[in-house]
Amino acid sequence: MLKIILLGAPGSGKGTQADLLAKRFSMYHLSTGELLRQAILNNTELGLQAKMAIDSGQLVPNNIIINLVKHQIMKVKDNCGLIFDGFPRNLLQVEMLDLEGILIDWIIYLKVTDQVVINRLTGRRYHPKSGRVYHIEYNPPKLTGLDDFTGEPLIVRSDDQESVIRDRLSIYHKNNAEVIDWYKTHFPKKFVEIDATIPFNQVFEEITHIIKK
Ligand code: AP5
User: Fold this and answer.
1) CB of 90 closer than 6 A to ligand 1?
2) Is the CB of 21 inside a 6 Å radius of any atom of ligand 1?
3) 99, 140, 142, 183: most buried, per Cβ within 10 A?
4) DSSP designation for 181
């Protein structure tokens, strides 16, 4: 079954595209960030371990993330496609996927500038229970500040404060180059770079075009 990794900066649109792909192609959307946020919301042990790192824009330790991803992979049925969103983020995580023998069909790199990231993340609104994501300008809810499906209030994610966004970006830039280089070197024909500064429906069309090849 189809397996895709979405790479890209915070706010590049990984979650948005993964959601659309999961619905269109009936794939499982494995978002490490969303799993951690749900764990925090539910006050689980994992949530307690991850909260401080997430709130301050740092990476959650590799051993926690790797266990989480292994567990999720085991849960996914063999006949279901899989989209990795927010994983892998460094070479140790890349290595884990490789060692698990997960064969990836496409590595799609959503490229944006830092200015686009700031603009998107400061305007993002989030529905904690469902993980639904909006943007005040590019994807607004029907009623300002409220989730379209439940009518519950939307929030600003704790790590979407501008100072935290800058820290997340700097960590991203520190790790991203080696992850990109690894995939470009090992899977040159499966690695695709997409200009993700265009509207999200157009990004989705491009991705769809690629994976239908
Ligand atoms: P995570 O949730 O993965 O955060 P991230 O990678 O920083 O990505 P974001 O969720 O911020 O953005 P996105 O690319 O999904 O963009 P979105 O589609 O929402 O991780 C959070 C934290 O968890 C990390 O900081 C770390 O602490 C921890 N963590 C997670 N994974 C980890 C790992 N593997 N290792 C260690 N720690 C880990 O879009 C953003 C906004 O833009 C939205 O408002 C959306 O509506 C809008 N938008 C999307 N596309 C477009 C478009 N084309 N045009 C205009 N607006 C758009």
Assistant:
1) no
2) no
3) 183
4) H
